């Protein structure tokens, strides 16, 4: 049995459609190449996929531009080139219109030009918008002021801590200096007490100590060795 006839219609399943496109594109390029080689024909083929991807084939050694130029000469037509000037002009017009609208809005908010506001409702709406903007500005201003106050308080606490540390350091060093001064003042008194314990020559203090002498009624004692007796 032969293969069933395939109904030619759009394949709804995207995956199946992409697989079918890849297979048939390869077959189409193969047949185009065979036609060009076997029949010595100049063939140009351009294919765009559903996703916008382009693939092309051109008979060697020609280029696709040469084949398109030959097509234009034969048919007497010209492939329209894309002219972006109209799009640029349209975009410039849109930007110019938007710029003008923004300028009018700025002039309204600054009070320079209120001629475009023709009714009381428009002026009242503008006043409400300005009040809302002013409230936002005040809120932001208060927020910045609060941040500055917090920073100043933080710096104040740091300075107080440094001042307290410096004060304690000064008190400790002052106590140490007073203790050293008291110790230095007490040393001469101790030296006088030690010197007064010794008898000195004369009534005035002297650095030479007086040597003690024996009283006149005490005779010097001489040690005499006893001789042994051999008569016994």
From TrEMBL:
Keywords: Coiled coil, DNA-binding, Nucleus, Transcription, Transcription regulation. This is Uncharacterized protein. The keyword Coiled coil applies. It is found in: Nucleus. GO terms for biological process: positive regulation of transcription by RNA polymerase II. Residues 85-176 form the K-box domain. The keyword Coiled coil applies. PANTHER family: SERUM RESPONSE FACTOR HOMOLOG. Residues 1-61 form the MADS-box domain. One of its GO terms (cellular component) is nucleus. Its main location: nucleus. It comes from Carpinus fangiana. GO terms for molecular function: DNA-binding transcription factor activity; protein dimerization activity; RNA polymerase II transcription regulatory region sequence-specific DNA binding. Residues 120-165 form a coiled coil. InterPro entries: MADS-box/MEF2_TF, MEF2-like_N, TF_Kbox, TF_MADSbox, TF_MADSbox_sf. It comes from the Eukaryota.
């Amino acid at each position: 049995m032969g293969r069933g006839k395939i109904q030619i219609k759009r394949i709804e399943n995207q995956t199946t459609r992409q697989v079918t496109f890849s297979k048939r594109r390869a077959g189409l390029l193969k047949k185009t190449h065979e036609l060009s080689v076997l029949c010595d024909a100049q063939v140009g083929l351009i294919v765009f996929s559903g996703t916008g991807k382009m693939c092309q084939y051109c008979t060697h050694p020609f280029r696709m531009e040469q084949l398109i130029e030959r097509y234009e000469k034969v048919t007497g037509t010209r492939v329209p080139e894309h002219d972006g000037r109209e799009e640029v002009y349209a975009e410039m017009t849109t930007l110019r219109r938007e710029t003008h609208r923004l300028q009018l809005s700025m002039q309204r908010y600054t009070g320079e030009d209120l001629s475009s506001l023709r009714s009381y409702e428009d002026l009242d709406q503008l006043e409400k918008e300005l009040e809302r903007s002013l409230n936002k500005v005040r809120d932001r201003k208060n927020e910045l002021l609060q941040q500055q106050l917090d920073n100043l308080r933080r710096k104040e606490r740091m300075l107080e801590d440094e001042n307290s540390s410096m004060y304690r350091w000064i008190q400790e060093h002052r106590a140490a200096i007073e203790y050293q001064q008291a110790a230095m003042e007490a040393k001469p008194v101790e030296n006088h007490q030690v010197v007064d314990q010794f008898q000195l020559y004369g009534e005035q203090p002297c650095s030479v100590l007086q040597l003690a002498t024996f009283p006149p009624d005490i005779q010097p004692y001489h040690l005499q060795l006893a001789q042994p007796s051999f008569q016994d």
